[in-house]
Amino acid sequence: KKLSFPRIVSEPNTKIGAGLTHLYQVEFENSPAFPFAFSLVSAPTGMKISPNGEIRWETSLYHVGQHHVMIEAYEASNPDNKVEQSYLLTVTEYCDLAQPALALFLDRNQDGSPEGDKIITLADEFKGSLSALENYNYKWWAPHIQIGPAGDYYASSVFFYRGSDGLYLFLLIDREGGGAFANRVDIGVSVKGNGFVDDILFADDPARWWRKSPLERVVRERGHFYLGSFMNWFKADGAVIGPLHMSEDLQVAVQIEDPGQLRHLYFHRYDESPEGRRYSLVDESADGGWPGLIFALSQKAPCLE
Description:
- The chain has three helices and 23 strands.
- It has 305 residues and is mainly beta.
- The longest helix is centred in the middle third of the chain and has 5 residues.
């Protein structure tokens, strides 16, 4: 007489972030008293089940969506004696954060709003005891950053630094990433929800940077808008804007108004390495337009962040 197959009592997690590994161990009410095997009757490509009933699946952004999984455990000598389990596995692009954090949104439609835009990464700032101006360290006609992106020459970069005088936005354009000596790159920056306390702390060429104020009533009530040019720089050119006060209303947008010969732009996020983690931002459109960057608080982030 064949023994009936014991029921499966284990329950899988049915939600996972893209880039994470889905693991599930099948467990029974009682261990079967006969040789048995497993199979995946229905499963996404790449998912496998081991002889001991462990499922392992490496996910990616390609897998975002819902996937039907059906497991079958059966008696090795009598495949008709079996038990099944089905579940719907959802792979999400973003994972919830324990608390809101500043994140980088890619504003492809350049509407100035993060709504519906892709989150690239969290915008963790570099920190130090130097003031923002001391960290910029302007000498020999160029910035020499003490804490943050550094090197023999600077890649064209955007990053945040929190020092003794608060949080500031740093913008750098270098000759390698910005083209020839006489090239010109125009950038617009808007700061909203900051109580109008921000200003241009420093710019290599202050005559080419200005805060557009007063503005139209609806804009003036929300924040400041800055417009500046990087032009005729010796090695690297830059500007520092702030201080910025973290709040649910804070929103900082960076827009390339005229890229000139700009070829590369990076956002640097703090991590344990000296220059942080670097994210490449490139021209995505056929007409030469660059996507905008929006920094705002988010309750979600890419799951591997």
